[in-house]
Design goal:
Blueprint (H helix, E strand, L loop, with lengths): L2 E6 L6 H10 L6 E6 L5 H8 L5 E2 L18 H6 L5 E3 L2 H5 L5 H13 L4 E5 L3 H5 L3 H12 L11 E5 L13 H18 L2 H6 L2 E4 L4 H8 L6 E4 L6 H10 L3
Parallel strand pairs: 1-2, 1-8, 2-3, 4-5, 5-6, 6-7, 7-8
Bound molecules: 1,3-dihydroxyacetonephosphate.
The site of 1,3-dihydroxyacetonephosphate has 14 residues, from strand 8.
Amino acid sequence: MKKNIVANWKMHKTRQEGLSFLAALDHTEHVGVYIAPPFTLIQDMAEFVRGTSVRIGAQNMSGHNSGAFTGEISVTMLKDVGASFVILGHSERRNIFLESDEEIAAKVERAVCENIPFILCVGEDREEKNADETQEVIKNQLVTAFSSLTEKHLKNAQIAYEPVWAIGTGDVATPQIVDEVHMFIQEVLSEMFSRETALRTPILYGGSVKPENFSALVELKSVSGALIGGASLDVKLFNQMIKMIKD
Ligand code: 13P
């Protein structure tokens, strides 16, 4: 399976900075390169990469199609400006903006109905990890988010395991933890859908990924790539990580 490297820029960069990043981006066809800038950069960046394999997407979207939802952006609007994927259920959406599993499920359903590829983020926080609840938390997140889906709806889906305790902390999960949790996610997908779907659905790791720890994580068979925050803002580091993915 082709490995994917996904940049989540969170609330960073202006349009000019986004375009300068793309001008210096060194991508190759054998790696799936995805960038999720803030909404305001999507159109310019999508136009810049048109005709290449680089994909520009969004960090979030509404679970509604249109209506009186001040400040929200719909999937139709995202597609209109050239977004070709969307990240859903990021822990910062869950924890800071209090998105519930049910709201995230509505967003997943919207993405599926509108046929936009999505990356669903799951992961436990430090307290849950210490209480040995990682599997329970992740299973719950997956089961709720995918409750209304059937196997065919997962063909454009990726899952990102992002332990909250590893995000922005420098405290990266060990390859052993990542491997165990990714296998567990595959088990849950097997139970919910089929073994085939479980093996076909890319599972990314995210949380303090940087060039120093990238290879050990991404080379694992259970890891289909990485979702990167901080280290994806610097094009030199991002290029370095793309290069580390072997043919
Ligand atoms: P960091 O790579 O900055 O830890 O962020 C991870 C993340 O939240 C990506 O979505």
